[in-house]
Design goal:
With 268 residues, the protein is an all-alpha fold. The chain is built from 15 helices and two strands. Strands 1-2 form a two-stranded parallel sheet.
Amino acid sequence: MAEALQNSNPDQEHPRLVWSGEGGSVLLGLVHLNESIIASARAGNVDRAIGEFVECEQTQIPARLFRPHVLENANDLIRRGIREELDASQASDAGRNFYLFLMLNDQRRKLALHFENLDLHQLEFQLPFFDGRFVEAIIATPLDWCLGHKLYVKLLSLFPPAVMQVPWQAYPGHEPCPLPIPDQLAYQWDENYQSQDSVARKRRVLRRASALLRSVHFPHRILSKRNLRLAAWLHSTGWRDYQYAIEAAETYSRYSSICNGKFSLPLS
Protein backbone atom coordinates (compact mmCIF):
# COMPACT_ATOMS: atom_id res chain seq x y z
CA MET A 1 0.00 0.00 0.00
CA ALA A 2 2.79 2.41 0.93
CA GLU A 3 4.60 1.75 -2.37
CA ALA A 4 1.42 2.40 -4.34
CA LEU A 5 0.94 5.70 -2.55
CA GLN A 6 4.53 6.73 -3.18
CA ASN A 7 3.94 6.24 -6.90
CA SER A 8 0.57 7.97 -6.88
CA ASN A 9 -0.19 11.20 -8.68
CA PRO A 10 1.45 14.05 -6.68
CA ASP A 11 -1.24 16.41 -7.96
CA GLN A 12 -3.95 14.61 -5.98
CA GLU A 13 -5.51 16.68 -3.25
CA HIS A 14 -4.58 14.19 -0.51
CA PRO A 15 -2.07 11.74 -2.05
CA ARG A 16 -1.16 10.08 1.26
CA LEU A 17 -4.60 9.90 2.85
CA VAL A 18 -6.01 6.38 3.22
CA TRP A 19 -9.58 5.48 4.20
CA SER A 20 -9.70 2.93 7.01
CA GLY A 21 -12.60 1.10 8.64
CA GLU A 22 -10.46 0.33 11.68
CA GLY A 23 -12.45 0.21 14.88
CA GLY A 24 -15.84 -0.48 13.35
CA SER A 25 -16.17 -4.00 14.72
CA VAL A 26 -15.58 -2.89 18.31
CA LEU A 27 -17.53 0.36 18.24
CA LEU A 28 -20.48 -0.70 16.09
CA GLY A 29 -20.26 -4.49 15.79
CA LEU A 30 -19.49 -5.35 19.44
CA VAL A 31 -17.22 -8.12 18.20
CA HIS A 32 -15.75 -8.96 21.64
CA LEU A 33 -19.13 -9.20 23.37
CA ASN A 34 -22.06 -11.60 23.14
CA GLU A 35 -25.52 -12.00 24.63
CA SER A 36 -24.27 -14.33 27.38
CA ILE A 37 -21.64 -11.89 28.66
CA ILE A 38 -24.13 -9.02 28.61
CA ALA A 39 -26.79 -11.11 30.38
CA SER A 40 -24.36 -12.13 33.15
CA ALA A 41 -23.34 -8.51 33.69
CA ARG A 42 -26.96 -7.34 33.83
CA ALA A 43 -27.79 -10.11 36.31
CA GLY A 44 -25.08 -8.77 38.64
CA ASN A 45 -22.79 -11.76 38.09
CA VAL A 46 -19.81 -9.69 37.01
CA ASP A 47 -17.24 -12.37 37.81
CA ARG A 48 -19.03 -14.82 35.55
CA ALA A 49 -19.17 -12.22 32.76
CA ILE A 50 -15.43 -11.62 33.16
CA GLY A 51 -14.76 -15.35 33.09
CA GLU A 52 -16.74 -15.77 29.87
CA PHE A 53 -14.95 -12.82 28.29
CA VAL A 54 -11.48 -14.09 29.24
CA GLU A 55 -12.32 -17.57 27.92
CA CYS A 56 -13.74 -16.29 24.64
CA GLU A 57 -10.83 -13.92 24.03
CA GLN A 58 -8.18 -16.36 25.34
CA THR A 59 -6.56 -13.60 27.34
CA GLN A 60 -5.30 -15.73 30.20
CA ILE A 61 -1.79 -15.13 31.52
CA PRO A 62 0.53 -18.08 30.77
CA ALA A 63 1.35 -18.57 34.43
CA ARG A 64 4.06 -21.21 33.95
CA LEU A 65 6.31 -18.67 32.26
CA PHE A 66 6.66 -16.73 35.48
CA ARG A 67 9.10 -17.29 38.29
CA PRO A 68 7.36 -18.66 41.42
CA HIS A 69 7.67 -15.41 43.36
CA VAL A 70 5.88 -13.56 40.53
CA LEU A 71 3.17 -16.12 39.89
CA GLU A 72 1.11 -15.39 43.02
CA ASN A 73 0.66 -11.76 42.03
CA ALA A 74 0.26 -12.35 38.29
CA ASN A 75 -2.05 -15.37 38.34
CA ASP A 76 -5.32 -13.42 38.46
CA LEU A 77 -4.01 -10.11 37.19
CA ILE A 78 -6.15 -9.88 34.06
CA ARG A 79 -9.43 -10.62 35.84
CA ARG A 80 -8.61 -8.13 38.60
CA GLY A 81 -7.72 -5.48 36.05
CA ILE A 82 -10.96 -5.98 34.13
CA ARG A 83 -12.95 -5.85 37.35
CA GLU A 84 -11.33 -2.55 38.34
CA GLU A 85 -12.13 -1.07 34.93
CA LEU A 86 -15.75 -2.26 35.13
CA ASP A 87 -16.15 -0.87 38.64
CA ALA A 88 -14.94 2.51 37.39
CA SER A 89 -17.89 2.72 34.96
CA GLN A 90 -21.32 3.60 36.30
CA ALA A 91 -23.63 3.06 33.34
CA SER A 92 -27.30 2.48 34.14
CA ASP A 93 -27.11 -0.63 31.95
CA ALA A 94 -24.57 -2.94 33.60
CA GLY A 95 -23.93 -4.60 30.25
CA ARG A 96 -22.76 -1.26 28.86
CA ASN A 97 -19.96 -1.15 31.43
CA PHE A 98 -18.31 -4.00 29.53
CA TYR A 99 -18.72 -2.08 26.28
CA LEU A 100 -17.16 1.03 27.81
CA PHE A 101 -14.29 -1.10 29.12
CA LEU A 102 -13.54 -2.20 25.55
CA MET A 103 -13.87 1.30 24.15
CA LEU A 104 -11.53 2.81 26.75
CA ASN A 105 -8.94 0.05 26.43
CA ASP A 106 -9.07 -1.98 23.19
CA GLN A 107 -10.47 0.71 20.92
CA ARG A 108 -8.44 3.49 22.50
CA ARG A 109 -5.16 1.71 21.70
CA LYS A 110 -6.01 0.21 18.31
CA LEU A 111 -3.99 2.71 16.31
CA ALA A 112 -1.07 3.11 18.71
CA LEU A 113 1.37 1.36 16.37
CA HIS A 114 0.16 3.42 13.40
CA PHE A 115 0.88 6.70 15.17
CA GLU A 116 4.13 5.45 16.67
CA ASN A 117 5.43 4.85 13.13
CA LEU A 118 3.83 7.89 11.54
CA ASP A 119 7.23 9.41 10.81
CA LEU A 120 8.24 6.26 8.90
CA HIS A 121 5.23 5.51 6.68
CA GLN A 122 3.95 9.10 6.56
CA LEU A 123 0.37 7.97 5.95
CA GLU A 124 -2.70 9.65 7.34
CA PHE A 125 -5.89 7.66 7.92
CA GLN A 126 -9.44 8.81 7.30
CA LEU A 127 -11.15 7.12 10.26
CA PRO A 128 -14.95 7.42 10.36
CA PHE A 129 -15.21 5.02 13.32
CA PHE A 130 -13.04 7.33 15.41
CA ASP A 131 -15.04 10.46 14.62
CA GLY A 132 -16.03 11.98 17.96
CA ARG A 133 -19.64 12.76 17.10
CA PHE A 134 -20.20 9.34 15.54
CA VAL A 135 -18.66 7.59 18.55
CA GLU A 136 -20.90 9.61 20.85
CA ALA A 137 -24.01 8.69 18.84
CA ILE A 138 -23.22 4.95 18.82
CA ILE A 139 -22.41 4.84 22.54
CA ALA A 140 -25.84 6.39 23.19
CA THR A 141 -27.53 3.68 21.09
CA PRO A 142 -29.15 0.71 22.91
CA LEU A 143 -26.56 -2.01 23.29
CA ASP A 144 -28.74 -4.86 22.02
CA TRP A 145 -29.28 -3.10 18.70
CA CYS A 146 -25.55 -3.34 17.95
CA LEU A 147 -24.74 -6.87 19.14
CA GLY A 148 -23.55 -9.20 16.40
CA HIS A 149 -23.09 -6.41 13.82
CA LYS A 150 -26.90 -6.09 13.51
CA LEU A 151 -27.03 -2.28 13.37
CA TYR A 152 -23.78 -2.21 11.38
CA VAL A 153 -25.31 -4.18 8.49
CA LYS A 154 -28.56 -2.19 8.57
CA LEU A 155 -26.66 1.10 8.28
CA LEU A 156 -24.95 -0.09 5.10
CA SER A 157 -28.25 0.23 3.20
CA LEU A 158 -28.10 4.00 3.76
CA PHE A 159 -24.82 4.36 1.86
CA PRO A 160 -24.26 4.59 -1.92
CA PRO A 161 -24.95 1.32 -3.83
CA ALA A 162 -21.22 0.69 -4.34
CA VAL A 163 -20.92 -0.21 -0.64
CA MET A 164 -23.14 -3.25 -1.15
CA GLN A 165 -21.49 -4.53 -4.32
CA VAL A 166 -18.54 -6.38 -2.78
CA PRO A 167 -19.10 -9.27 -0.33
CA TRP A 168 -17.26 -9.40 2.97
CA GLN A 169 -16.40 -11.99 5.61
CA ALA A 170 -18.73 -11.94 8.60
CA TYR A 171 -17.56 -12.89 12.08
CA PRO A 172 -18.77 -16.31 13.25
CA GLY A 173 -22.18 -15.97 14.91
CA HIS A 174 -22.61 -12.37 13.72
CA GLU A 175 -24.98 -10.93 11.13
CA PRO A 176 -24.15 -12.65 7.82
CA CYS A 177 -23.18 -10.81 4.68
CA PRO A 178 -26.38 -10.37 2.60
CA LEU A 179 -24.43 -10.78 -0.65
CA PRO A 180 -23.63 -14.17 -2.20
CA ILE A 181 -20.08 -15.29 -1.40
CA PRO A 182 -18.12 -16.72 -4.37
CA ASP A 183 -17.31 -20.39 -3.80
CA GLN A 184 -13.60 -20.02 -4.60
CA LEU A 185 -12.96 -17.54 -1.78
CA ALA A 186 -11.43 -18.73 1.50
CA TYR A 187 -13.10 -18.01 4.84
CA GLN A 188 -10.49 -16.97 7.38
CA TRP A 189 -12.28 -18.68 10.30
CA ASP A 190 -12.68 -21.98 8.45
CA GLU A 191 -10.72 -24.87 10.01
CA ASN A 192 -9.05 -25.82 6.71
CA TYR A 193 -7.93 -22.26 6.10
CA GLN A 194 -6.70 -21.94 9.67
CA SER A 195 -4.63 -25.12 9.40
CA GLN A 196 -2.99 -23.95 6.16
CA ASP A 197 -2.23 -20.56 7.62
CA SER A 198 -0.88 -22.04 10.86
CA VAL A 199 2.22 -23.45 9.12
CA ALA A 200 3.54 -20.02 8.14
CA ARG A 201 2.37 -18.52 11.44
CA LYS A 202 4.21 -21.23 13.38
CA ARG A 203 7.50 -20.40 11.64
CA ARG A 204 7.16 -16.72 12.50
CA VAL A 205 6.34 -17.45 16.13
CA LEU A 206 9.27 -19.84 16.52
CA ARG A 207 11.68 -17.29 15.04
CA ARG A 208 10.49 -14.75 17.59
CA ALA A 209 10.79 -17.25 20.44
CA SER A 210 14.32 -18.11 19.36
CA ALA A 211 15.31 -14.44 19.25
CA LEU A 212 13.88 -13.86 22.72
CA LEU A 213 15.67 -16.88 24.18
CA ARG A 214 18.99 -15.70 22.72
CA SER A 215 18.54 -12.13 23.90
CA VAL A 216 21.08 -10.89 26.45
CA HIS A 217 18.24 -8.80 27.93
CA PHE A 218 16.00 -11.79 28.72
CA PRO A 219 14.12 -10.87 31.94
CA HIS A 220 15.33 -13.75 34.11
CA ARG A 221 13.97 -12.07 37.21
CA ILE A 222 10.35 -12.58 36.21
CA LEU A 223 10.28 -15.19 33.42
CA SER A 224 11.45 -18.79 33.31
CA LYS A 225 13.66 -19.35 30.27
CA ARG A 226 13.40 -23.10 30.79
CA ASN A 227 9.60 -23.03 30.53
CA LEU A 228 9.67 -20.71 27.55
CA ARG A 229 12.13 -23.02 25.78
CA LEU A 230 9.82 -25.96 26.54
CA ALA A 231 6.79 -24.04 25.24
CA ALA A 232 8.65 -23.21 22.01
CA TRP A 233 9.65 -26.85 21.55
CA LEU A 234 6.09 -28.12 22.11
CA HIS A 235 4.81 -25.47 19.72
CA SER A 236 7.31 -26.59 17.06
CA THR A 237 6.13 -30.22 17.32
CA GLY A 238 2.50 -29.25 16.92
CA TRP A 239 1.48 -31.01 20.13
CA ARG A 240 0.31 -27.77 21.73
CA ASP A 241 -0.33 -24.26 20.48
CA TYR A 242 1.77 -21.95 22.63
CA GLN A 243 1.70 -18.89 20.40
CA TYR A 244 -0.14 -16.97 23.12
CA ALA A 245 2.57 -17.80 25.66
CA ILE A 246 5.42 -16.82 23.36
CA GLU A 247 3.76 -13.52 22.46
CA ALA A 248 3.05 -12.83 26.13
CA ALA A 249 6.70 -13.47 26.99
CA GLU A 250 7.69 -10.96 24.31
CA THR A 251 5.38 -8.38 25.86
CA TYR A 252 6.74 -8.89 29.38
CA SER A 253 10.30 -8.78 28.08
CA ARG A 254 9.63 -5.54 26.20
CA TYR A 255 8.19 -3.82 29.27
CA SER A 256 11.05 -5.09 31.40
CA SER A 257 13.47 -3.58 28.90
CA ILE A 258 11.61 -0.25 28.88
CA CYS A 259 11.87 0.12 32.65
CA ASN A 260 15.37 -1.39 32.70
CA GLY A 261 14.16 -4.14 35.02
CA LYS A 262 13.37 -1.61 37.74
CA PHE A 263 9.81 -2.38 38.80
CA SER A 264 8.09 -3.49 41.97
CA LEU A 265 5.53 -6.23 42.24
CA PRO A 266 2.12 -5.22 43.63
CA LEU A 267 1.20 -6.45 47.07
CA SER A 268 -1.27 -9.37 46.97
